[in-house]
Amino acid sequence: MRIVMLGAPGSGKGTQAQLLGDKHRIPQISTGDLLREAAASDSPLGRQAKTTMDSGHLVSDDIVLGIIRERIRKPDAKRGFIMDGFPRNIEQAKELDAMLEEIGRPLDAVLFMDVDNDQLMQRLVGRRTCTKCAKVYNVYTSPPIIDGRCNNCGHRLHHRADDNEETIGNRLRVYETHTSPLIKHYIDQEILETVNAVGEINEIFARLQRFLKQFTGKKYEQKQDDAAKARADARLEAKRVEEELTVALATMIAEKAAAAKDGGETDTAAPQPPKSKVSKKA
Q1: Catalytic pick from 2, 13, 50, 123?
Q2: Which of 73, 229, 251, 270 is most open to solvent, judged by the fewest CB atoms within 10 Å of its CB?
Q3: Other CB atoms closer than 10 Å to residue 231's CB: what's the count?
Q4: Is-catalytic flag, 261?
Q5: In 3-state terms, what secondary structure has residue 35?
């Protein structure tokens, strides 16, 4: 399965991508993580990414796509991958489509995590993260037992400075402007599935699992249909070739027979005897 997770900030696509990756044993490819790993490596693309990031600029799409290409060619991505955080706009989507088509690994599905803006605001403003184990809580929907402390390890919970209404409102507006049009792009390709992403994490995961089960079944059926069609097409082609050969053979035999007939009238006809001269009696 080759999947893109699509959704607004706070829609839960990263969490669900990780769960799906663990379940199906395929890697979650987060472009943020990829860029950090690439920058820490000594690869040519990694050095380019690090130089750009250190200068405070955005890494170009060419570099990001090159890093993604390298990542999905690793052995653990042979069975598929789940992409999280890319593409973010139509241009990136088209470039990603072209790159995946070039290497023969086009997308199977795009999962759109559908959440309304009020829910998104609540999720992001109320988000708290453990400073040690990185477990995520929400003071509105999934608060810790002890306020400000992690249930797992007891360490302090962190509230990101940019998780405020003004900043989040700006992020959602950017998403609507640049990323939301991707929905139509993938609908046109008939690979987008809208998933209700409101509810408990396990409930949302179960919805995704049901879709993927149906999707896998449809893909299997499609492969079976394609194989049957290919066999039928092969039989039709073989029959067509056989008929053409039969016609060609019959034509050749007829031409030879006609040639033999014409040649026989010229060469084998019996010669006519000469007329004898009879003397007249006087």
Answers
A1: 13
A2: 270
A3: 10
A4: no
A5: helix
For residues 35 and 67, the answer to whether their CB atoms sit within 8 Å is yes
Catalytic residue, chosen from 36, 88, 132, 207, is: 88
Is residue 127 annotated as part of the catalytic site, yes or no? yes
Q: Which of 160, 213, 223, 240 is catalytic?
A: 160
CA distances from 8 to 173, 228, 229, 235, 238 (A): 10, 41, 40, 50, 53
List 50, 71, 123, 127, catalytic entry = 127
Both tokens assigned to 151: 């249930």
Which residues lie below 8 Å from residue 154, measured CB to CB, with a gap of 6+? Answer: 146
pLDDT in tens, 144-198: 999 999 999 999 999 988 788 888 888 888 888 888 889 999 999 999 999 999 9
Q: What is the pLDDT of residue 92?
A: 92
23 is catalytic: no
